[in-house]
Specification:
Elements lengths: L6 H13 L3 H13 L6 H15 L1 H13 L6 H13 L3 H10 L9 H13 L3 H13 L6 H13 L3 H10 L9 H13 L3 H13 L6 H13 L3 H13 L6 H13 L3 H10 L9 H13 L3 H13 L5 H10 L6 H13 L6 H13 L3 H13 L6 H13 L3 H13 L5 H17 L1
Protein name: Pentacotripeptide-repeat region of PRORP domain-containing protein
Keywords: Repeat, Transit peptide
Pfam families: PPR_1, PPR_2
């Protein structure tokens, strides 16, 4: 005899549909359940309520609660918490507070989770006094705050730059029987570093260790970023040594942070040294590492080293498209046209066909410097080398010719491109308009 499906059977399907954004289909499944005489349970409704709040707003979700009650299913704390969270998200924090205080009349005692939801809403609205009063209310209602309660407020204070208040609250946690965890400390350390108070952040690092809270990779990477921002390279190196000693090995974010700041400051010798140390420290350079250091080398006019790493990157299977863009940006300055041309030749010497993006950077540089005729020669060389122009290539040449006063030649090129359906219509109209304006101006 076949087993009749129940809510426990339907809930995974409804949950999956909601997770994928198919709320309408999930509601259709609910209708199907009711038609088949299969009673949805509170979990069914809570899944649908959360998805409806996110997709259509809490007011629409309230209709589901009416249906829920009509079908004999009693809402629970989770149900009301979903609605309160929706209210806070939409800025109706006072309505959420009212619902919290009405929970007993609905047969539910407010939980710490319910209070934390409202606290998050109050903090988002920067209603700090109301948040403080709510924490006091929790104690009076015999619903003591937990670590999550303090983390909500501390994280919000840190985001708003109110570090003094955040640290004060951190010191009060133990009075309420709560122990600050790594999430709490990381929020404050990040806030201190953003305010360039790296010494304060380092002091908190020592304090958290004495309280038995072990720093994690996020802690160290945040501090490293703060030290690098202040150009405190010796301290940054010491911090990385301390990481290893405390059993927290540097990761790609650690190395990329240090390399990124060194490149920004033009300290390429140090950046390359750190790059070379990565494999010995058990860390393999990723595409961000290569992109950062190649960009730094190109900006420092160290093209040979940049191209060497570019080749290495390609050999390791990384997508070089972004690097072409980086090279193009670095070589787009007026005084680097010759270097850009040399880059193309060196790439070809190593068996790599330069990308259209790189050629476009060269063409733009030449046209900006009144060397459009040379740019046309470069484009011919580009095509003969097997690299096909794109829309931007032609636009650069048309506007370069017009800028130098070769309006007839620019119009002739545009007409040829139109006849061959090379440019899209929007670009054709834009270039034709620009040419007309130039003709009238002359």
């Amino acid at each position: 005899m076949p087993v009749q499906p129940n809510a426990y059977t339907y809930n995974p399907l409804i949950h999956t549909l909601c997770e994928r954004g198919h709320v309408r289909d999930a509601l259709s499944v609910l209708d199907d359940m009711l038609c088949r005489g299969c009673a949805p349970d509170v979990v069914t409704y809570n899944i649908l309520l959360e998805a409806t709040c996110k997709g259509r707003g809490y007011r629409q979700a309230m209709e589901l609660i009416d249906l829920m009650r009509a079908e004999g299913c009693t809402p629970n704390n989770v149900t009301y918490n979903v609605i309160m969270d929706g209210m806070c998200t939409e800025g109706d924090v006072d309505d959420a507070l009212q619902l919290l205080r009405n929970l007993p009349s609905h047969g539910c005692n407010p939980s710490t989770v319910n209070y934390n939801t409202i606290l998050k809403g109050l903090c988002s609205a920067e209603r700090w006094e109301d948040a403080d009063e709510l924490v006091t209310e929790m104690l009076q209602e015999n619903c003591p705050p937990n670590e999550a309660t303090f983390n909500v407020v501390i994280y919000s204070l840190c985001r708003k730059g109110l570090l003094h208040q955040a640290i004060q609250l951190l010191e009060k946690m133990s009075k309420h029987g709560c122990t600050a965890n790594i999430v709490t400390y990381n929020a404050i350390i990040n806030g201190l570093c953003e305010q360039r108070n790296v010494d304060g952040a380092l002091g908190l690092l020592s304090k958290m260790k004495s309280y038995g809270c072990k720093p994690d990779i996020v802690t160290y990477n945040t501090l490293l970023k703060g030290l690098c921002s202040a150009a405190r390279w010796v301290d940054a190196e010491e911090l990385m040594d301390n990481m290893a000693q405390n059993g927290c090995l540097p990761d790609n974010v650690t190395f990329n942070t240090l390399i990124g700041f060194l490149c920004q400051k033009g300290l390429m010798v140090d950046a390359i040294e750190v790059f070379k140390q990565m494999p010995d420290k058990g860390c393999t350079p990723n595409s961000i590492t290569y992109s950062t250091i190649i960009s730094g080398l190109a900006k420092a006019s160290k093209l040979d080293q940049a191209l060497e790493l570019f080749n290495e990157m390609g050999q390791k299977g990384f997508n070089p498209d972004k690097i072409y863009q980086l090279l193009a940006e670095c070589l787009n300055d007026d005084d680097k046209i010759e270097e850009a041309i040399q880059t193309v030749r060196k790439l070809q010497d190593t068996g790599i066909s330069p990308h259209t993006v790189l050629y476009n950077a060269i063409l733009l540089g030449l046209c900006k410097n009144g060397k459009t005729e040379f740019a046309i020669d470069i484009m011919a060389y580009m095509v003969s080398s097997g690299c096909m122009p794109d829309d931007l290539t032609y636009v650069i040449l048309i506007e370069g010719l017009a800028h130098e006063g070769y309006l007839n030649e620019a119009r002739e090129l545009l007409i040829k491109l139109c006849s061959r359906d090379v440019l899209v219509n929007s670009l054709i109209k834009r270039e034709a308009l620009l040419l007309d304006q130039n003709i009238h101006a002359s």
